[in-house]
Design a protein that fits this description.
- 39% of the residues lie in helices and 23% in strands.
- The protein is α/β, with parallel strands linked by helices.
- The strands form 2 sheets. The protein has a 7-stranded mixed beta sheet, with helices on both faces. A two-stranded antiparallel sheet has the order 6-7.
- α3 (28-44) runs parallel beside α11 and α6 (133-141) crosses α9.
């Protein structure tokens, strides 16, 4: 059952929309993260399918899929994010390939009339801001076809890069922040709560309606985005690190040390 309320952080994400592409999408680090996810999206979703996207942000993933002739129904809590996403898709001449809706993830049950979808995905940390993943899983199961695949990219918990980087700068609270259950901070429009569930906890939240098929790590050798100034100085090193990530992203030891985790699940019959 959907949580029938609008989270209080819409104003925060509207504000974040103005710099999101500059701060992440267009960065050296951000591009490596995005390309790793795109490889999985392209493997799962094919021309002619209709896919639901949660937390679409400024629409770069929706546009990528639209270019491969996948139709996308993209949702985000932020009206400004959706506005920028529409502009991006319109500039590419692919308006008919993507439908946008201003809608919080907690309210996706409202899309019942748009169902069924052939699959779904959420890129990067949008689902880490959801309080009840099991409720979202139930709602999502009602929107996708049996045996449909969904792809979820969420924040990793154990990131050696982060521990070392912030430890060296004396910020020990930030260094171990992800090892806790979550964080809360006051932002424009309310309180932003971010949870850090483990892969087993994420899979458990979806287990009643979805089976976990595989999971990989995104951003193992490549450092997190707050090291962008370093990444810009050494682009060849970052390219080499990205190649290493491709090789080890599915290996049990290494995938547990990733900045993000990428889960592929299948809707049960």
């Amino acid at each position: 059952m959907a949580v029938n309320h609008t989270p209080p952080t819409r104003a925060y994400w509207d504000s974040a929309a103005e710099t999101y592409d500059r701060d992440f999408t267009d960065t050296v680090v951000g591009k490596t993260r995005r390309e790793a996810v795109w490889r999985e999206l392209d493997r799962l979703f094919v021309s002619g399918q209709r896919i639901l996207e949660l937390n679409c942000g400024t629409g770069i993933d929706a546009l990528h899929l639209a270019k491969t002739e996948v139709k996308v129904f993209a949702c985000d809590i932020s009206p400004r994010m959706v506005e920028l996403a529409r502009e991006r898709v319109a500039s590419a001449g692919l308006v008919k390939a993507v439908d946008f809706r201003v809608l919080a993830t907690e309210e996706i049950a409202e899309l019942d009339s748009e169902a069924p979808f052939d699959g779904a995905f959420s890129n990067f940390s949008g689902l880490n801001c959801v309080h009840d993943l099991a409720a979202v899983a139930d709602d999502l199961a009602g929107l996708v076809r049996p045996y449909a695949r969904i792809l979820l990219c969420m924040i990793g918990r154990f990131v050696p890069w982060e521990i070392v980087w912030f430890g060296m700068h004396g910020d020990f609270r930030r260094a171990v922040q992800r090892l806790g259950r979550g964080t809360s901070r006051i932002v424009e429009g309310g309180v932003l709560k971010v949870q850090y569930p483990s892969v087993s906890e994420i899979a458990g939240a979806f287990a009643r309606r979805f089976d976990l098929r595989r999971w990989t790590g995104v951003g193992i050798a490549v450092p997190p985005s707050y090291m962008e100034h370093w990444a810009r100085r050494f682009p060849r090193i970052i390219s080499a690190m990205a190649a290493v990530d491709d090789l080890v992203s599915g290996l049990p030891v290494f995938r547990n040390m990733a900045d993000c985790v990428l889960l592929e699940l299948e809707r049960k019959e």
